[in-house]
What we know:
Chain A is mostly beta strands. Chain A has strands spanning about 5, 10-15, 20-25, 30-40, 45-50, 55-60, 60-65, 70-75, 85-95, 100-105, 105-110.
Amino acid sequence: KQEVTQIPAALSVPEGENLVLNCSFTDSAIYNLQWFRQDPGKGLTSLLLIQSSQREQTSGRLNASLDKSSGRSTLYIAASQPGDSATYLCAVISGGGADGLTFGKGTHLIIQP
Amino acid sequence: DAGVIQSPRHEVTEMGQEVTLRCKPISGHDYLFWYRQTMMRGLELLIYFNNNVPIDDSGMPEDRFSAKMPNASFSTLKIQPSEPRDSAVYFCASSFIKAGPSREETQYFGPGTRLLVL
């Protein structure tokens, strides 16, 4: 059974810093990996999707990488801003015909003004 | 497009009552997913449909939970009877899988239904 782990569980950094969020998964046979953002009391917003054949995806100040063989992904946030404060969730779609996402428990990020 | 629509947004009920959560997926999407989020367990897949047909319901916790998708634009998740441990946020998501060698699928989530069972 696929398991997704995110480290750290919480992170607080001053505004302007670059930061890295980590995600690991136990079964490397994934179809794709998706990073989401969740604001308090809100739904999930998809940030980046990396297909199994890709190594990275970029959107603005966000860059996500994928290393399938080692079961790892990172989300890099450049020049962090207070508006980046949220919970970031990593999720994978695994092989074997399962189409639902398996989620990590998230990293709660606070950017201090 | 309005995105995935869920109703109600909040539901407070008493133990033993029936609860029905509703979802309207994005038009044209052929996959619909129900997830549950709790502090202890995070986000978990309950069930998903493809072209209105349930594909995998192994995540449904008990027989008290049931889900239907009578047409491409509507799905329900029902809990009967409800229990306090069912209190959680229930999310509906939909997606459209593009043809190709790898799965090009982004799941779009609704705002969720916050359920409190007293």
